[in-house]
Amino acid sequence: MADLRVKIDKLELKNPVMTASGTFGNGVEFDDFFNVDKLGGIILKGTTLNHREGNDYPRMAETPSGMLNAVGLQNKGVDYFCDHIYPKVEKYDTNVIVNVNGSTIEEYIALTERINELQRIDAIELNISCPNVKQGGMAFGTSCPMAEQVTKEVRKVYDKTLIVKLSPNVTNIAEIARGVESQGADAVSLVNTFLGMAIDAETRKPMLSTVTGGLSGPAIKPIALRMVWQVAQAVKIPVIGIGGIMDATDAIEFILAGASAVQVGTANFVEPNTTINIIEGLDVYLEKHNYNNINNLIGGLQL
Amino acid sequence: MKKEVSNLLVTKNIALNHDNFLIELKADSPVEQILPGQFVNVKVEKSPNTFLRRPFSVHDTYPVTNSLSILVKAIGDGTKALSAIKEGQYLDVVFPLGNGFKMPSKGETVLLIGGGVGIAPMMHLARISKEIGADVHILLGARTLNDHILIEEFKRYGKVHLTTDDGSLGKKGFVTDHPVMDGEIRFSRYQCCGPDPMMQAVARKAKQNETECEVSLENMMACGFGVCLCCVTKTHEGNKCVCTEGPVFNINDLEWQI
Which of A51, A87, A164, B94 could form a disulfide with A180 if both were Cys (CB 3.0 to 4.6 A apart)? Predict the structure, then answer.
């Protein structure tokens, strides 16, 4: 068995396989399928300060090799999280990370302060890239000054590992990555979904209630891979690769591009055991290619 | 029963008519634990445009062979690919998912209503309801005579009533035009699955007749087990996932304008 352990700032991961926020519930939904403790980490469903109902149905459209979603951060707010969800995820023997969202900087700060009180939450992922909310969300992640400002303010109130989740809906993602790094981000995760849309030609109506939504799945993988590669060149902090990862080969590609860890998202919907299969597949790959430690593979793209 | 991802052996694929197929799958876990109204989520191979799994109600279970069946109407790429599966092949299935219908008490009179492919979960519900000792009525609606399937099978479990849009079989019109829904027979409950407009029409009848009514919703979903939050329906307690909090809902809980 090769050594699959990686580090993301202070976080020690058993392996580089994590789950992307909004695709893994709070972990407990997967307890029937496999032992969640085997994962490198889990990123819980995006949380906001106050309860959010999310967007109207339909919120999803299947597209070639992927899907659009427009959930809109449906969640019951941080009080509910602390009282009802946290007690259920405390049991996990893996890194448990909360995805933090706000429509103002004050909301990001207030939410982070609440999460900071929870001992078993090992890190936060600052979501400045949700394309499905009217205020905040992606607005923070598509403007370099705003991305820097929110990172800076949250950094002041949070000592544990701060991951910033980047939007791909920008001209120069490396610039945003460098910006949040300069303001104290410990790692960046990328990419969130691409803004897209789908139309039903028969009814001449949009497929989503919100008209536009976030595209995910294998359709986005080549673009995500390019962005991870560009960001990995641009920053010194660890990069977490996300975007259409369906199997171990996909994960290896992101690691070769410079990702220290990966998040599996949409694949969890199609094949609930994807993450576990990837962990096994990584080990097989390392053995086959005579690596005894996955760290030797990070950024190992042969140019 | 715990959810599982399993490769299930296809033991039968019966063409019921031009576009409806009954696919029987052998399970390892005991199928007696599957509740009427629960569903399975099937991965579709050999269909490049089908990325997500496709949900199907469990049509019935067969404890003797430990099998379950699904009813597939070949409409889109995914269901067409699925309908071509052969005996001896395997289907990758996540199951059992969702919650079931309310079970009747012995002696209760119930009306199960299925429209189109919405008849799918009604066989299981009819069989179990009869086994419990309920007086089961089954109302099936389809476009034409040729679209009606499984009538003889339904007759084993209750009194069958039929409608067609064109009057080629049974009463002409929608299920709500059938006299069995006129309120003369006092049913404990209507239990319904079909297109949304049909279920809303049934819900209106239920209100008029002061009859309890459950509907099984078929919202589009990505995961089927409560993590994508895509299949929501509005209820008096906010958005609920059709996959984990349904698919069966009491109409009094839904924010339907009826």
Answer: A164
Cβ-based neighbour number of residue A294 at 10 Å: 22
DSSP state of A36: G
Indicate if B68 and B14 belong to the same structural domain: yes
Domain range for B170 is 109-216
From chain B, pick out residues whose CB is under 8 angstroms from the CB of A268. Answer: 223, 227
User: Under an 8 A CB cutoff, do B221 and A60 touch?
Assistant: yes
For chain A, the average pLDDT equals: 96
Length of chain B: 258
Domain ranges of chain A: 6-297
Strands (DSSP E) found in B43-108? 54-62, 67-73, 90-97
- CATH number of the structural domain spanning residue B130: 3.40.50.80
Q: pLDDT digit of tens for each residue in chain B (258 aa)?
A: 899 999 999 999 999 999 999 999 999 999 999 999 999 999 999 888 899 999 999 999 999 999 999 999 999 999 999 999 999 999 999 999 999 999 999 999 999 999 999 999 999 999 999 999 999 999 999 999 999 999 999 999 999 999 999 999 999 999 999 999 998 899 999 999 999 999 999 999 999 999 999 999 999 999 999 999 999 999 999 999 999 999 999 999 999 988
Cα nearest neighbour of B42 on chain A: A270
Q: Please report how many Cα atoms fall inside a 13 Å half-sphere around the Cα of residue B95, on the Cβ side.
A: 36
A130 part of the active site: yes
Are B58 and B224 contacting, i.e. CB atoms less than 8 angstroms apart? no
Residue A132: pLDDT over 80 = no
DSSP symbol at A82: I
Report the complex ipTM: 0.95
Burial A258-273 (b: 16+ CB within 10 A, else e): bbbbbbbbbbbbbbbe
Tell me which CATH homologous superfamily contains domain A6-297: Aldolase class I (3.20.20.70)
Which runs of consecutive H residues, i.e. helices, occur in B7-121? 77-83
Q: How far apart are the first and last CA of chain B?
A: 35
C-alpha to C-alpha distance for A246 and A264, rounded to whole angstroms? 7
Q: Kindly list the residues from chain A whose CB atom is less than 8 angstroms away from the CB atom of residue B239.
A: 53-54, 74
Give chain A positions within 8 Å (CB) of B43: 270-271
